[in-house]
Design brief:
The protein is α/β, with parallel strands linked by helices and 238 residues long. It is built from eight helices and seven strands.
Length: 238
């Protein structure tokens, strides 16, 4: 059982997109295609009260190749996440903003209340936390606060992945983002998830990357998630 949590204080950095599409490509290679009645070993779990991932999945109807659940009101269930029967891979989508408190006085920077309790619960069972960052300076400080105030003090294994980079903008922003990650000494994914309109339209159209059309652009968009899933399972040992 591997529990992978997507976390960043900043909203809009692609947590839902990455969680759902990692679930899709993992299901694509682990589902028992010879037995249509077999249950998928993959779960995408949303603890975001907005439920973006669950709404996305609802657009797919009965074609969803993995399990999906909304868990922000099930604190006991989250604490028992490692014991779900038949599930081997869990990808957790978290809320888009964490109202971090100052930790100078020794208090938990996640604060108090139900939302903070939910985040603590999923972090306690996480095998790895993926921290998406975009190639824009506005995402740099929230990423640093997420890692320095939440993950590192807890000793939680984490990996920063550059998301939504548009190759048409050139490589200057990509280099700047990589340099920022390296300067902070954070583990960084080799895979860069590129920007494609397919990704932004997919939720409304009820598609995941494994269902993109078979053309050059779609195959390139799909490739990033297969590469990232492979990196997690081979390079990161998840």
């Amino acid at each position: 059982m591997a529990v992978i949590v997507l976390l960043n204080q900043k909203g809009g950095v692609g947590k839902s997109t990455i969680a759902v599409n990692l679930a899709a490509v993992t299901a694509d290679v682990t589902n028992h295609t010879d037995d249509p009645d077999a249950s998928s070993p993959v779960l995408a779990l949303s603890v975001d009260p907005q439920g973006s991932a669950v709404w996305w999945a609802s657009r797919m109807g009965d074609d969803l190749p993995f399990h999906i659940a909304q868990g922000h009101e099930d604190l006991a269930g989250l604490k028992n996440l490692k014991n779900l029967p038949g599930i081997k891979h869990v990808y957790v989508d978290t809320p888009g903003w964490i109202d971090l408190e100052s930790s100078d006085n020794g208090t938990d920077p996640l604060g108090k209340g139900p939302a903070a309790d939910v985040l603590r619960a999923v972090l306690e069972v996480a095998d790895l936390v993926i921290v998406p960052i975009e190639t824009e300076p506005l995402s740099f400080d929230p990423t640093a606060r997420t890692i320095n105030k939440v993950l590192q003090p807890r000793g939680i294994r984490h990996l920063v992945v550059i998301n939504n980079w548009d190759p048409r903008d050139g490589e200057a922003d990509l280099r700047q983002t990589r340099d920022f990650i390296k300067a902070n000494g954070w583990p960084m994914a080799n895979t860069v998830i590129r920007h494609y309109k397919l990704h932004s339209r997919a939720s409304a159209e009820g598609q995941v990357v494994t269902e993109y059309p078979l053309n050059r652009v779609a195959l390139q968009a799909r490739e990033d998630f297969y590469k990232f899933a492979l990196e997690l399972n081979v390079g990161a040992g998840i």
